[in-house]
Amino acid sequence: MRKSTTINSTKALSFFFTHQSIHTSPPLSQWKPRHEYKLTRPDLVDRICRLLVLSRHDAISNLSFDFSDDVVDAVLVKLRLNPNACLELFKLASKQQKYRPDIKSYCKIVHILSKGRMFDETRAYLNELVGFVKNKKLSLVVWVELVKVYREFSFSPTVFDMIMKVYAKKGLTGCALHVFDEMSKSGRMPSLQSCNSLLSSLVRNGELYTVFVVYEQMVRVGIVPDVCTFTIMVDACCRCGRVGKAFELVKEMEGLGFEPNVVTYHCLINGYVELGDGYCKVCKMEEAEKVLQDMKQVPSFTMDERAYGVLIDAYCRNGRMDEALRMKDEMLGLGLEMNLFICNSIINGYCKLGQVHEAEGLVISMSSWKLKPDSYTYNTLLDGYCREGHTTEAFSICDKMIEEHIEPSIVTYNTLLKGLCRRGAFADALQLWHLLLKRGVALNEVSYGIILDGFLKMENSEGALMLWKHVLARGFATRIVFKTMVNGLCRMGRITEVEEILEKMKELDY
Length: 510
Hints:
The protein is mainly alpha-helical.
């Protein structure tokens, strides 16, 4: 019995020592959990897809891999019919410190989200994508890539309409026009809203000829205009002086059952008083007023200060202060309120006619309308006093600005310099000039031109030539300054210096 036990013990010890010792196994530092071993790319893509479909988004962070364009694109392609899963992946990818999705990935996600009718997210990513692009040439790369993804996925054409609208809103009218043309060629009609965005952007950029071309093409392919479209086109007509055409559009609009809105009428009034053959230019303000009266006849309209403000400003710029004040009283009679724009227009009108005291009286009255003068108000009044030769009062206005915590601008200082020179007080102007330089005020080409003109009128050629060197050094030698210098030196008979300046003009290509 004892012998058997001994044999069994010996076998056990023999078995133990014939197996590898724990000390000869790989070090613990080299051991890794099974899930951290490197996955092949197809396995990794499959694993990510499964986790996304199961909504186990946090588990993706535990996988040992670096985000890259090929991994993100592969997952997006595989899950393209699952927009929520793709969106979660894209959000996770966008949060990485060392990785950002590229243009191709963005184009894939917007198509996927659009197909899933997740339009808010689609718009957000399109805006983000176009915002990343730094120039117009690269902006078109976005369009090219969107087309490639569309051909790969066979969806979603809605993205083309949306990118056109994004381009238009960001002022990339060339890109928006390219999309508009490409969609028309392929028989896909852009939405009316996107077309309106394009038209509006073209008007803002002053591309008025193109506006009419796009509008005609819209009508030709069967896109029916709405009130917004007509209003944009009325604005375009008025901006290029075609007020008659603007009225034709309003009539066409009414014939189609659309009622002009307040914006439409504002555009017409602006057309009359501002541009091209606007009636205010040929003293036919009565026609402009008639538009205002038409607005008052529409029961659904609530009159506002804007329309009155445009007319009051036009009367003031034409020196017709009685009519301006009549319009102001009519406006107040309707229960509308004065605003800063209207006050500044009337103050400017008074000052242009030399009625500075009336202008100052209106400034005092502003407090009763709960309005505060701004920099434009004070600068207009200051200029009015300077034009009348009342520089002492002008300096008082400058002091008042400082009291009201309104910083005098370079316009303020230039007006004072010009006022002193106009009054013949060139020594005082020069003293103010040196004071401004000492205080570190950034004087501009207008400032230098005023003092240069002062030296020349005082026939101080040495002072003028010395200042001229500073003008050249600072790059302030504009065509007007050259002309001032040449005329002044010619009057003094300094022909040699004139020839030198003319040579300098040729050298600088003036």
